[in-house]
Amino acid sequence: MKIKTLTIVGVGLIGGSIGLAAKRRGVAERIVGVGRRPDTLERALAAGAIDEGSPELGRSVRGAEMVVVCTPVNRIARDVLEAGPHCAAGTVITDAGSTKAGIVRMVEGNLPDGVEFVGGHPLAGSEKRGPEFADADLFQDRLTVVTRTARTDAAALQKTAEFWTALGSRVRVMDPEEHDRALAMTSHLPHLAAAALAALLPAELRPLAASGFRDVTRTAAGDPALWSAILAENRANVLYWLQQLEHGLDCFRAALEAGDESALEGLLAEAKRGRDALGN
Amino acid sequence: MKIKTLTIVGVGLIGGSIGLAAKRRGVAERIVGVGRRPDTLERALAAGAIDEGSPELGRSVRGAEMVVVCTPVNRIARDVLEAGPHCAAGTVITDAGSTKAGIVRMVEGNLPDGVEFVGGHPLAGSEKRGPEFADADLFQDRLTVVTRTARTDAAALQKTAEFWTALGSRVRVMDPEEHDRALAMTSHLPHLAAAALAALLPAELRPLAASGFRDVTRTAAGDPALWSAILAENRANVLYWLQQLEHGLDCFRAALEAGDESALEGLLAEAKRGRDALGN
Description:
2 copies of one chain form a homodimer.
Chain A: E1 3-9, H1 13-24, E2 28-34, H2 38-46, E3 52-54, H3 57-61, E4 66-69, H4 73-83, E5 92-95, H5 101-107, E6 116-118, E7 120-122, E8 143-147, H6 154-166, E9 170-174, H7 176-200, H8 211-217, H9 224-233, H10 235-257, H11 261-276
Parallel strand pairs in A: 1-2, 1-4, 2-3, 4-5, 5-6, 8-9
Antiparallel strand pairs in A: 7-8
């Protein structure tokens, strides 16, 4: 795959990593970065993630064959709709947002003819922020979900899948609602639980927090604004899984209250089977 | 510090790592490993963690200057009490258990004159098991808690602290009850929460679990028997902190139900402050 001009809207860790990966792999000839903050654009340029930067979305997507929107989930639909009228026919717009249903719903049917949107979500990231943490191998062997609905253009879906594949990712096509239900469990609820645990730790106990605590709570260092938008956007699914988690904790509580060590061992064994199945 | 004979009771990951660290650092001239299972002793010998292995606790502690009991928390007190009468006067016995109050309570006052016990807990480990995963640097720059009560012998406490320091660890002296209250929060509750999350994941969603989920649930791969004993042993403290966690989750739930994104952001920001204070 060879894209003449790739425009990346939002050049933080994810957008920057897309730029680096596209360059390293010869996926794009020219990469334009769009960002509201001049210093972020400069850092993305310095990191080699983009060839030029601009604060003007409309002008920056004009000559693009492909546009990837990497802004926070509560801005993606707006950015896509703003970009649409400036795109040439044949342009494919995708995104890298952690939620999909709301974005796809807001965008579908609202773009000019010939400009197509296909939702994307690379399951890769970090609790870090900014293009200085961009990594050309961030998507290597990771999974990217690409969305399909009844209105999705087949050629645009194909091109979007090829794009993420060219960046090193495996691709799975999913319905946006199905994606959101799944990610509530695999990503959003664990983030919430990690945050609840991290918030509990009294300052005087910090020296006694070892690798276990650090692993469990690592994701809680993520950006609160990005994650509150994700949780709010996917709140019905997160609430469903939160209730399941509370039920799971209740089972542990009952076993503890009863002093039932074999019940505890059974719960832990079930958890271990699930975790072992994931590998490292 | 130079120990003539060090006896390690239980030569799994922790016992094996103590053996390797003691050898690498020249802390012990001769290391005797005690284990009930011949194949574990053989693997510990093969890993170079011990010089000789035996299933007989009594005979193996006879010539020891120092004894470290690294069996599961529900066996430690019994092993210490069984070893005591076979030890020479002047022998110091310590342990590596994740709980302290019950063990110290059962042991104190029940050892022969001149044989001293000082509880220990190196805050290091892994979800792995067995001497083949032993690591000579496991304790390097980690913290080991050493317990002191009104009955603790000052010279034995000093020697135990020197022992863990010689293995590369920092040492903190704590009351056993204080240790258990703290570790319920920093280790036992996070383990329980990680297990509850890991158990929730349906098999069909495993491909969608990325690094966030893997980090949050990593500790859930730990041994169910070891961990059920730890949770049962420290159940009052774990129940206290579990209630706090449930309260924290309730706050998230209320914010989600209200669709209050700024409340969510506030909760996440508090969590981030706590997690950032820990460093990586």
